[in-house]
Specification:
Blueprint (H helix, E strand, L loop, with lengths): L1 H15 L26 E2 L4 E4 L10 E7 L5 E3 L4 E4 L5 E10 L7 E11 L4 E2 L7 E2 L4 E4 L2 E2 L6 E7 L5 E3 L4 E4 L5 E10 L7 E11 L16 E2 L7 H4 L4 E12 L5 E8 L3 E9 L4 E6 L12 E4 L7 E2 L1 E2 L13 E2 L6 E3 L4 E10 L2 E10 L11 E2 L3 E3 L9 E3 L5 E2 L5 E3 L2 E8 L9 E6 L5 E6 L17 E2 L5 E4 L5 E2 L6 E2 L3 E7 L2 E9 L3 H6 L9 E3 L10 E5 L5 E5 L5 E2 L9 E3 L11 E3 L2 E5 L3 E9 L2 E2 L5 E7 L7 E5 L2 E9 L9 E6 L2 E8 L4 H4 L11 E3 L2 E15 L4
Parallel strand pairs: 1-7, 9-16, 17-53, 42-46
Antiparallel strand pairs: 2-5, 3-6, 4-5, 6-7, 8-11, 10-14, 12-15, 13-14, 15-16, 18-58, 19-20, 20-21, 21-22, 23-27, 24-25, 26-27, 27-28, 28-29, 30-31, 32-34, 33-34, 34-35, 35-36, 37-38, 38-41, 39-40, 41-42, 43-44, 44-45, 45-47, 48-49, 49-50, 50-51, 50-52, 53-54, 54-55, 55-56, 57-58
């Protein structure tokens, strides 16, 4: 019985303690782990990504986190182990994840992982390019997406419009020189070692709506409009051409009218516009196509006078001992200039303000006439010198003694203006000044004769010429010529000026051998403007042509101007004498022909071959022009249908101007003159030195107190 009792106790004990008498282990949870060799799929920029992490062992549910490093930008890890999001950058991201189980004292496991995000496919996002306009600055930027910036662009087939270039950064820029549609292919490549590429097909349309933004059409002062398709020799000579309408303005119009197309005038819609400046210190924006209805009034008018407060134009009577002044008042004489990149018109106005005299540079919004850039700014300048009118070794610009006649130049972000005298009344000098187009701050000043007298820059209203680098070529008139002084004096010369951070540098010059005689006889060089020729095929690639009161034609190498030779002018490319009358304007260029309108002479053309003019004229008009002689404006459709337009103003003292049109290939053929139907076509009383503006089938002529538009007459 005892034995049985002990056995029963042992059984009870075994039942009470698990595992009693058994070789099996206690029930322990397995170790938490992340499967070895875990890897994550590759992603792509801008494409949704998702991957789920897994673990085993421990006690689920698991909780995940990033222990170190970071996920690719745009991705996140949820506690449930899901990596998701949209990657925003390419590259490989390395990081460590940690997983914890659900025990009270949780197990933890880690694993080092990485995700590679590939770049998005490279695509060109630009779908089309804007239309451009001939002879108007063009700019467009190509855009791409994907790949690895920065991108590199190239032209793979076809060609851009003439005058435009493509930068590696994707900027298409330049000034189109011909109209039409250009088709081409572009490729963009990214910056990977094995770059992605993408290609696209594009086209740019360049319209031939001409815009006249500066005196004589361009900074070379060629006077040519090569995109005129409406006015042809046939249409102009058919009897269908004449005056369409006139506008009355408040003063004499010496400045050449400027022309823009498709200008959006606030509250008045889109117009083609002519901009007209007057000696009464006004600038007008006028509809270029009609003066009917709502267009009978100016689109806008800016006036720089306020008579009630003593601000007026300068009166001819304010100029002492002046017998050949601009009459009856002096306000705006020089042709303004328009900057299409900022929609700004720059104009120089002269005023008398309660007995004081000012020249002011105005910057006007082309759509409203409102002042811009904190303008206007009063012109003031001084340079070291002991010349006429100086004091204490300083020569100071005198607004009353000086007249701004040459057309304003806009080049390389600067506005350039030039001055001569009011009627050669001493003291006066030639001046050239540069102002920043964006700030109107003065940047450079040059005086032609700081130790002497005179040397005016007037050019009968022609604009100072500049090449593509912004180098100026400036003729000076009668005055002191002395190159050994400090500073030096350059009367009766053509000088080459370069603007830089320290002001102007005189880089080169040409002075005729007989400059002393020219000064004594008042045959100054600067009565005529400078023409910069297109590149020539002869030994002198870069040439200019100029002529003054003497009528001597100078062909000068712009890269080696020749300085002064006291014996003759053999150091320059060519010097023609006795072929034309004195010039009070500027030569003009078209299709290897150069045109001169001399005083008391016919209008004449010379051919140009390998940089040399023909020894004698190739054609001449039957009409002889008195003082001052005309300056030619050329309209043509490329090398065809060329017409030479002039305004005859030798009746400026007591008669009407005459608009004339000649065959540019043979000046002996006159197509039209406004006297053929004077009651209908009269331009109005003549103003000296004016020249016509030809644009998009119309010709615009300034006169005393009016501007007129000519074109093809309506057919009834």
């Amino acid at each position: 019985m005892k034995t049985l009792a002990l056995a029963g106790l042992a059984l009870v004990l075994c039942l009470s303690f698990s595992g009693c008498g058994s070789s099996s282990s206690p029930n322990v949870t397995s170790e938490l782990s992340i499967p070895a060799g875990t890897s994550l799929p590759t992603g792509q920029v801008n494409t949704a990504y998702s991957a789920t992490l897994t673990a085993s062992g421990g006690t689920p549910p698991y909780s995940w986190s990033v222990a170190s490093g970071s996920l690719p930008a745009g991705l996140s890890l949820s506690a449930g182990g899901i990596i998701s999001g949209t990657p925003s950058a390419s590259g490989t991201s390395s990081f460590t994840v940690q997983v914890s189980d659900a025990e009270a004292n949780p197990q933890r496991a880690t694993a080092a992982l990485s995700i590679t995000i590939a770049p998005a496919p490279l695509t060109i996002t630009t779908t089309s390019l804007p239309t451009g306009n001939i002879n108007t600055p063009y700019s467009a930027t190509l855009m791409a997406n994907g790949g690895v910036p920065p991108y590199s662009w190239s032209l793979t087939s076809g060609s851009l419009p003439a005058g435009l270039t493509l930068s590696a950064g994707g900027a298409i820029s330049g000034t189109p020189t011909a109209g039409g549609v250009s088709n081409f292919s572009l490729q963009v490549a990214d910056s990977q070692s094995s770059p992605q590429t993408a290609t696209g097909q594009f086209s740019i349309s360049i319209t031939t709506q001409i815009q006249v933004t500066t005196q004589h059409n361009d900074n070379s002062r060629t006077g040519q409009n090569l995109d005129e398709t409406i006015l042809t020799p046939a249409s102009v000579s058919s009897g269908q051409f004449g005056k369409l309408f006139s506008y009355t303005v408040d003063g004499y119009v010496y400045a050449q009218p400027l022309y823009l197309w498709n200008v959006n005038i606030p509250g008045k819609g889109v117009h083609n516009v002519i901009y007209v400046a007057t000696e009464h210190d006004s600038v007008y924006a006028l509809d270029a196509d009609s003066n009917a209805g709502g267009n009978s009034a100016p689109l806008w008018q800016a006036s720089f006078i306020d008579p009630a407060h003593g601000i007026t134009p300068i009166s001819s009577s304010d100029l002492p001992n002046c017998f050949d002044a601009i009459v009856p008042e002096v306000g705006i004489t020089s042709t303004p200039v328009i900057d299409l990149s900022s929609n700004t018109l720059y104009v120089l106005a002269e005023t008398k303000e309660n007995g004081n005299f000012y020249h002011r540079l105005h910057a006007l919004d082309i759509t409203t006439g409102a002042e811009k850039f904190g303008g206007p700014v009063a012109i003031a300048a001084s340079v070291p010198g002991t010349g006429s009118g100086s004091s204490g070794g300083i020569l100071t610009f005198d607004p009353l003694q000086h007249l701004n006649r040459p057309g304003i130049l806009l080049s390389n972000g600067n506005v350039f203006m030039s001055w001569s005298s009011n009627c050669d009344v001493t003291p006066w000098h030639g001046w050239v000044m540069a102002y920043d187009a964006a700030t109107l701050a003065q940047k450079a000043v040059w005086a032609a004769t700081p130790n002497g007298n005179a040397g005016g820059v007037w050019m009968s209203g022609s604009g100072v010429a500049a090449d593509s680098s912004g180098t100026l070529f400036v003729p000076t008139g009668n005055g002191t010529f002395e190159t050994t002084g400090n500073p030096t004096d350059f009367g009766d010369s053509i000088v080459k000026l370069m603007e830089n951070s320290s002001g102007f540098t005189l880089a080169d010059y040409f002075t005729p051998y007989n400059e002393g005689t020219l000064e004594q006889e008042d045959h100054d060089v600067a009565s005529g403007g400078v023409l910069l020729l297109p590149d020539q095929s002869g030994p002198h690639v870069h040439e200019l042509i100029q002529s003054g009161k003497e009528g001597s034609i100078y062909v000068v190498d712009r890269d080696n101007m020749g300085h002064f030779n006291s014996q003759n002018n053999s150091q320059i490319v060519q010097n023609l004498t006795g072929q034309i009358g004195g010039i009070f304007g500027a030569p003009s260029y078209w299709n290897n022909n150069v045109y001169f309108g001399g005083r008391s002479d016919a209008l004449k053309a010379f051919s140009l071959t390998n940089g040399l003019l023909s020894a004698t004229p190739t054609s001449a008009s039957s009409t002889t022009f008195g003082f001052p002689g005309p300056t030619v404006s050329i309209s043509a459709n490329g090398t065809t249908n060329a017409i030479a337009w002039v305004v005859q103003t030798d009746t400026h003292n007591d008669g009407n101007a005459v608009l004339r049109a000649y065959d540019a290939t043979n000046l002996g053929n006159e197509f039209y003159d406004s006297n053929q139907n004077l009651p209908r076509d009269n331009p109005g009383p003549a103003v000296r030195f004016v020249l016509p503006t030809v644009a998009n089938g119309k010709v615009y002529v300034g006169a005393q107190l009016q501007v007129s538009a000519y074109g093809l007459l309506p057919q009834h």
